[in-house]
From TrEMBL:
It comes from Massilia agrisoli. Residues 43-225 form the tRNA(Ile)-lysidine/2-thiocytidine synthase N-terminal domain. Keywords: 4Fe-4S, ATP-binding, Cytoplasm, Iron, Iron-sulfur, Magnesium, Metal-binding, Nucleotide-binding, RNA-binding, Transferase, tRNA processing, tRNA-binding. Its EC number is 2.8.1.-. Homodimer. The keyword Phosphoprotein does not apply. Catalyzes the ATP-dependent 2-thiolation of cytidine in position 32 of tRNA, to form 2-thiocytidine (s(2)C32). The sulfur atoms are provided by the cysteine/cysteine desulfurase (IscS) system. The gene is ttcA. Binds 1 [4Fe-4S] cluster per subunit. The cluster is chelated by three Cys residues, the fourth Fe has a free coordination site that may bind a sulfur atom transferred from the persulfide of IscS. This is tRNA-cytidine(32) 2-sulfurtransferase. The keyword Phosphoprotein does not apply. Its cofactor is [4Fe-4S] cluster; Mg(2+).
Length: 301
């Protein structure tokens, strides 16, 4: 390969990488705006696990902080849970190089989990609960009023399907919520970002990834099944996951069956046309748009 070709290839790679960075900034900025995640004067605790998603979150938030018309602070926080072989030096070295304020919280939750969970069982649930409580306390101590997590679009969809298939609930992972203790606002600025983009961005940026399997806990098999299902959909039915994700923010309670969300019991006819339409006699939602066709007259035979 000659020098001209190599230069052209390098230029194309640089162009695609820049496009990826711009897309991530746009999607994170859009989510922040749509849900009013960050306001002037906020102090945001960015939870940094050492995985690709939390690295990407911190990186993009630092970029947006420089461009935003408001002022807000970022503090990176990592919880060292004393898992065997955890490379404790990686994150401090990385964060010092970035020049961002950070805090490493040392808590031996690993021993607690190992003592309470039988051998061979998944430890992730208990580990998450312990981690959550500690991070709330740390947010108080650091005087952070927002806690930013690195969950992306695929995480949200996987949680939605897990709740539906195994929990019998239409429940996802919200982009913004009040914490369990009622004191903090938890935000997910990467709610619109695909996991494929964070994977590629981590490769481009060369983040020092710390694997999540240091504790030796087996993978959540149900989540793995959902992830594989979505991966197959992306291959065979492009756009399906995007449509499902869009449906999470386009809910029509009157066309579901939750009696607490919609007053089915007291529902009466009032002679007023329903702008949402009615498909009571249709076998399935019509795939062909019928709006704008005017009045359709049916002839009696």
């Amino acid at each position: 390969m000659n020098a001209a070709v190599m230069e052209a290839v390098a230029d194309k790679v640089a162009y695609e990488n820049n496009k990826l960075h711009k897309r991530l900034c746009r999607l994170v900025g859009q989510a922040i705006g749509d849900f009013n995640m960050i306001e002037d004067g906020d102090k945001v605790m960015v939870c940094l696990s050492g995985g690709k998603d939390s690295y990407a979150l911190l990186d993009i938030l630092m970029t947006l902080r420089e461009r935003a018309p408001i002022k807000f602070e970022l503090v990176a926080v990592n919880l060292d849970q004393k898992q065997p072989n955890f490379p404790a030096e990686i994150l401090p070295a990385y964060l010092e190089k970035l020049g961002i304020p950070f805090h490493i919280e040392n808590q031996d939750t690993y021993s607690i989990v190992k003592r309470l969970i039988p051998e061979g069982k998944t430890t992730c649930s208990l580990c998450s609960r312990l981690r959550r409580g500690i991070l709330y306390r740390v947010a108080d101590e650091l005087k952070c009023n927002k806690i930013a997590l690195g969950h992306h679009r695929d995480d949200i969809l996987e949680t939605f399907f897990l709740n539906m298939f195994f929990g019998g609930k239409l429940k996802g992972m919200p982009a913004k919520l009040v914490s369990d203790d009622g004191k903090h606002m938890v935000i997910r600025p990467m709610a619109y970002v695909k996991e494929a983009d964070t994977t590629r961005y981590a490769e481009v940026k060369g983040f020092p990834i710390i694997p999540c399997d240091l504790c030796g806990s087996q993978e959540n098999l149900q989540r793995k099944q959902i992830k594989n299902m979505m991966r197959e959909w992306d291959k065979k039915h492009p756009g399906r996951c995007e449509n499902i994700f869009s449906s999470l923010s386009t809910v029509v309670p009157s066309h579901l069956m939750d009696r607490d969300m919609f007053g089915f019991v007291d529902l009466k006819t009032d002679g007023v046309p329903n702008p949402l339409g009615d498909i009571a006699f249709d076998e399935e939602p019509c795939s062909t748009p019928t709006t704008g066709l005017g009045t359709i007259t049916l002839q009696r035979e």
